[in-house]
Amino acid sequence: MNHLKKVLFPSVLCLCLYIFENDPTEVTAIDLTTEDLSVAEQTTSTSSESTSSFQASTLTSDLTQPALKQALVPDNILKETILNKLGKPLTSELTKQDLAMLTTLELTSAQINSLAGLEYAVNLTDIRVEANNVTDFRPLEQLSSLVYVRLRGQNLTSANFPDLKKSTGITYISASATQLTNDVLPKLTQLSELQRLYLDSNMGITTIEPLKVLPKLRSISIQFCGVTDFTVINDFPVLNDLAAFGQNIGRMEPSATITRSTLAYDTEQETVFVPFELMPHRLTNFDGYLPPFSTSSSANETVLEFNGVQLPENRLQITDQGITVLNVSTDEFASWTSMHYNARINNPAGSYATPAHFGFYSISSGTYLQDFTIVEDPVPGAPVSVHFRDTTGHDIIEPLVLTGQVGESFTAAAKTFTDWLLVSSPATTAGLFTETPQELTFIYDKALGADVMVVYTDEENRTLAEPDTLSGRLGTPYQAKPKQITDWQLIQQLGNTQGVFTKQPQTVRFIYKKAEQAATPSVIEPYTETSSSYVLPEPSTSRGLMSVGERHMINQIIPEQTTVLNRLPDTLAEERLLPDTRAGFSEPKTVSTKNPPQKAQDTDAFGSVTVKIVDEKGNEIAKPQTLTGKIGEVYTVKAKKNRGIK
């Protein structure tokens, strides 16, 4: 066994060493002087320690695979163009250092599909791109040294036009024969150093007005665009060169709507006159002059169509004022629903003024195109009256009257009024004008006013009863009433007991004092005759309830005399309002046998009656007597006998 180990162990060890020595590996030289590695520059990572395992008589080892890296310029045609520009072999790989060496670059191959990688051409000052397949121009947005930019291609639009604001030194831009519209102009107005701008053959460019903010822009070329208004050049600070030959006006405009009566139809002559004054978006020179349309009826100069059918030359008579169409029957005229007008503008060089300070100025040889939709003349609709009323049906303001043509739409809206709340709206607030008058009504109610608090207190402002809260809408009346509180007498009120609800809270205070208690009845002494007079015995107290016994004793004193009855008024039963100042008790009332008893003032829970015996001149002939009792009780007064007096 030991002999076997001595033979096998060295053999296995030699086999392992052989395998490791002959394991295929890839060695790649690395250029440590370069910043980035190209696709061909790969490294192999080799472990410092090699391991092996012997399983089932099989020995394996890990082989290191090379890592792939994306090329800086993935488009092969663009890559070859740059390599040629740099004078490098076409088999070379571009690095950032290579791209940074570029200062000018022309890309005219139609096979270029991508500009990726040009963002590393940080020193590029002049670039020309005429590649119809390129749709992404964003790599140019990362550049900051551009001065001259020329872009061309049917895939260039306002949306993908690059935002070049990082290149603050751009002085020249050309973007001709593309799909640009007015939407590109905000991207151009950021370039404050821009001096020359070429946007030829972009019919979507219909104005140059936004460019007036560029302080150094002195030359614009917009030939074969669609610009109409050249009065705006008066606002450009240094512009002195304008090439605007051959404007194609109206290509981007929507169809205009005209009524049938706009086309003057002569029933006797069977002619229709189309006035040029109805044509919108006319070419206008810097001084406001409108160059005329061609007066030639030749199909090369004027095209007029109705319902898509071009009229022959012999049916057209054209002047500077408009076109007369001949031989139009009533039925034909009534059938027209569309009109198409396309003509040359009669503005050759020299027929219009040029700005005095311009070195070059041309707006010659334009064309005009406009489509129209012909509609019937509107019929005036009946008015729509919109009312704004309160809940009682009264108008808050004068009704709003809406007017329009039959078939036109209208919309009514609620209004906001101070102190009013909308409580009801029409079922529909929109509709169409018809030949029948219509009415819509918005109903409002007064807004709720602030509450009126009614409190019941004693003189020390202590609450005697639960307060009451009065609520109501602004401007509506309220009335606060005092309460009857057992053993308490109302003496004063503070605040308005009657008024209207307002926006401010209000308080009404009723003030009470403790009612006086009835005194204990006393015994009335029998009558004694003195000085030839009968005198009623005085009650035990000048105020208080008169007992039944007291009244009986008085009745027995002079039984033969007439009984005088009266009832003290019940003042608390009457719901009248007290004055704002403290109320006092009224003076006790005097009753004489000569004059009938008077109604006492109703200011106390207890009343008093003073009985006097007087002669015809009002002189007292006996001592006065005061009767007191609870308000509402019956009292009796009898005359005394006095000797010598009848």
Automatic annotation (TrEMBL):
<dbReference type="Pfam" id="PF06458">
    <property type="entry name" value="MucBP"/>
</dbReference>
<dbReference type="InterPro" id="IPR009459">
    <property type="entry name" value="MucBP_dom"/>
</dbReference>
<keyword id="KW-0433">Leucine-rich repeat</keyword>
<dbReference type="InterPro" id="IPR032675">
    <property type="entry name" value="LRR_dom_sf"/>
</dbReference>
<feature type="domain" description="MucBP">
    <location>
        <begin position="451"/>
        <end position="513"/>
    </location>
</feature>
<keyword id="KW-0677">Repeat</keyword>
<feature type="domain" description="MucBP">
    <location>
        <begin position="383"/>
        <end position="444"/>
    </location>
</feature>
<feature type="domain" description="MucBP">
    <location>
        <begin position="609"/>
        <end position="641"/>
    </location>
</feature>
<dbReference type="InterPro" id="IPR050836">
    <property type="entry name" value="SDS22/Internalin_LRR"/>
</dbReference>
<dbReference type="InterPro" id="IPR054360">
    <property type="entry name" value="InlK_D2"/>
</dbReference>
<feature type="compositionally biased region" description="Polar residues">
    <location>
        <begin position="589"/>
        <end position="600"/>
    </location>
</feature>
<dbReference type="Pfam" id="PF22122">
    <property type="entry name" value="InlK_D2"/>
</dbReference>
<protein>
    <recommendedName>
        <fullName>MucBP domain-containing protein</fullName>
    </recommendedName>
</protein>
<feature type="region of interest" description="Disordered">
    <location>
        <begin position="582"/>
        <end position="602"/>
    </location>
</feature>
<feature type="domain" description="Internalin K">
    <location>
        <begin position="263"/>
        <end position="374"/>
    </location>
</feature>
